[in-house]
Amino acid sequence: MIPRTLFSSDHELFRDSVRKFLEQEAVPFHAQWEKDGHIDRQLWNKAGEAGMLCSHIPEEYGGMAADFLYSAVVIEEVGRLGLTGIGFSLHSDIVAPYILHYGSEALKHKYLPKLVSGEMVTAIAMTEPGAGSDLQGVKTTAVLDGDEYVINGSKTFITNGFLADLVIVVAKTDPKAGAKGTSLFLVEANTPGFTKGKRLEKVGMKAQDTSELFFQDVRVPRENLLGQAGMGFAYLMQELPQERLTVGIGALASAEAALHWTLDYTRERKAFGKAIADFQNTRFKLAEMATEIQVGRVFVDRCLELHLQGKLDVPTAAMLKYWGTDLQCKVLDECVQLHGGYGYMWEYPVARAWADARVQRIYAGTNEIMKEIIARSFI
Ligand SMILES: Cc1cc2nc3c(=O)[nH]c(=O)nc-3n(C[C@H](O)[C@H](O)[C@H](O)COP(=O)(O)OP(=O)(O)OC[C@H]3O[C@@H](n4cnc5c(N)ncnc54)[C@H](O)[C@@H]3O)c2cc1C
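# flavin-adenine dinucleotide complex -> structure
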């Protein structure tokens, strides 16, 4: 195996502490959280105390000014343990950067320390019942009225939506201007007119709360606009590569974990007088998966390296998201097959991971949209 050289001994120490934290605070409870449809709210505060949230945020806003590899460690350990209910990465690596990069000093001081501590859980609401891939079709509006914006509309499929205290809402400030009329707003969950719909029942990722959100004459101070009016689409395009990188990192971690579970299982399980792992088909499947995961791992690490240098471009992040999540689903499917009937039983981690993996090809931009982005970059 090619050794990973990107992570220092400090990153590995952090990895040990993240793994211990998750094994103690999340693994024993995750099955119950799947039944509840959301994780325990307290986990956010505990994770904040343990330094696992928004570690990249500068110290002046309560963070540790850590490099992105610390975020990658959290994503990898959550993925390795199959804790798909935990939406830390969306909070830390997707929502927080919008506030950090486009929020005013007042907004940064007001909110970022609470994101770091877990006092506030966050979400980002782009998708609407009528607009997913085509974000220019967003119908939610934000109309300036004196010193306040008045938001009307509805959102769906919002991760962390049920527990969220603070949501970035994508809305049109100038509906006639297309992409150039799109803006981003910070909306606190207790603002009058903001309601949460039912928690959506999903095929997998059952412990991750995914909700509808409704906005009826929701008034937010003008200062809650992130950056400039009309620049929302440009900000989304700027930040989406990091979101796609996080999905790719999680995909590889999940595939690697499934390979290890399958190796253990096929060594133990016997048929026709020998271990399943001794059949040539099994050995070849395991060898193929190990090879593809190795190729993917090298690609993830190269993308991480580029990202640390500020050089991860949009098409490359799209390649990782599409190829990594396709690989994850392919590996999970093979792993279920090698488990036989037990691979289809919910109590087996491989069954859960298989169901959980499917959405990776859909959210954060579908894999078809990723291919459009890649194609557009060179054809
Ligand atoms: C569990 C889960 C969590 C999510 N979390 C969030 C969240 O936190 N915040 C948020 O805002 N959204 C979230 N989403 C929404 C997600 O990002 C969208 O579902 C996704 O972008 C696809 O949009 P859609 O569902 O409207 O599908 P559509 O856009 O209707 O697509 C349907 C099909 O058409 C294809 N298609 C569409 N356009 C093209 C094209 N130009 N070329 C080729 N094929 C195309 C798509 O690839 C897809 O196969 C989540 C979704 C799920 C399921």
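# post-check
The chain has eleven helices and ten strands.
Residues 123-127, 132-133, 157-159, 202, 205, 210, 359, 362-363, 365-366, 368-369, 372 surround flavin-adenine dinucleotide (CB under 6 Å).
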